[in-house]
Design goal:
This protein has seven helices and 15 strands. By secondary structure, it is α+β, with helices and mostly antiparallel strands. It has two domains: 5-149, 2-Layer Sandwich (Fructose-1,6-Bisphosphatase, Chain A, domain 1); 160-268, D-Maltodextrin-Binding Protein, domain 2 (3-Layer(aba) Sandwich). It has an eight-stranded mixed β-sheet. The structure holds L-MYO-inositol-1-phosphate (LIP). Residues 71, 87, 90-92, 168-171, 197-199, 216, 223 line the site of L-MYO-inositol-1-phosphate.
Length: 274
């Protein structure tokens, strides 16, 4: 069994595409909400569970010694030192409402995925289900959108007041109140804000130049493990601010110097607290 990043990437992409086909097939008009999680608006659909089951079955067959951490079924440790980190549908509320912005995220990480800064992505795929596009990356080998390289080449990085910034909000109202306070102060200082509702596509969007920056508080490892490598292999800085790694506390992504400026501004505004 190879641990070569490109070999692992092939498995990640195949898994994400297969789960994506299942999610697409259970599309509009056939969506069943099965349960809620952290709040009444944090829903789990039948497709979330079926897609995660498919991912786990495929990975158990291909990589029996690896661990798996998934949004719906939690963490099953392995013996190989590698763990697959999967989000069967990132952007579940968009999927529920038929808004074409949701993705399957499949990453393989070394280290401890439950420890902030204790893991590193080796390979990952974010499969945009409605567009049928695949963002892929392998550590030290680069990042791609549908096989076309996402360039690391230095480019014009706007100042904060010219930056188009993507962001997102939590499922609990107290968290959204705190996030609204931050936005109240940040919005007059940037070009504009986009709230698309899928963190994996938001982060890959920075890598692809669709946004100049993205930040969010409250993300789980499965939301950003794959997109993190797509972004960093494309020359984007992904940080928690204040020299910290990205985590549930805060994730900020942009090319420098914008990443430094935005992270400092967000910490100043208390974006890493409720
Ligand atoms: C969602 C993220 C989104 C965030 C939502 C939620 P889910 O993930 O993609 O960026 O704003 O609160 O966390 O729940 O669809 O997997």
């Amino acid at each position: 069994m190879t641990d070569d990043p490109l070999g692992l990437l092939a498995i990640a992409e195949e898994a994400a595409r297969r789960a994506g086909e299942l999610v697409r097939a259970s599309g509009p008009g056939r969506i069943a909400v099965e349960a809620t999680k952290s709040s009444p608006t944090d829903v789990v659909t039948a497709a979330d569970r079926a897609a995660e089951e498919l991912l786990r079955a495929m990975l158990a067959q291909r990589r029996p010694e690896d661990g798996v951490l998934g949004e719906e079924e939690g963490w099953v440790a392995g013996t190989s030192g590698l763990t697959w980190v999967v989000d069967p549908i990132d952007g579940t509320v968009n999927y529920l409402y038929g808004i074409p912005a949701f993705a399957v995220s499949v990453a393989v990480v070394s280290g401890r995925p439950d420890v902030v800064g204790g893991w590193e992505t080796v390979a990952g795929c974010v499969y945009d289900v409605p567009l049928g596009q695949a963002f892929t990356a392998a550590r030290g080998r680069g990042a791609w959108l549908d096989g076309r390289p996402l360039s690391r080449a230095p480019r014009e990085v706007p100042a904060l007041d010219q930056a188009l910034v993507a962001t997102g909000f939590g499922y609990r109202s107290e968290r959204r109140r705190a996030q609204a306070r931050v936005l109240l102060h940040l919005l007059p200082r940037v070009r504009d804000v986009r709230r698309v509702g899928c963190s994996a596509l938001d982060l890959c969007g920075v890598a692809a130049g669709r946004y100049d920056a993205y930040f969010e508080r409250g993300l789980h490892t499965w939301d950003f493990a794959a997109a993190y490598l797509v972004a960093t292999e494309s020359g984007v800085t992904v940080t928690g601010g204040g020299g910290r790694p990205p985590s549930e506390e805060l994730l900020v992504a942009a090319r420098d110097p914008l990443a430094r400026t935005l992270a400092a501004e967000l910490l100043e505004l208390g974006a890493d607290a409720d």
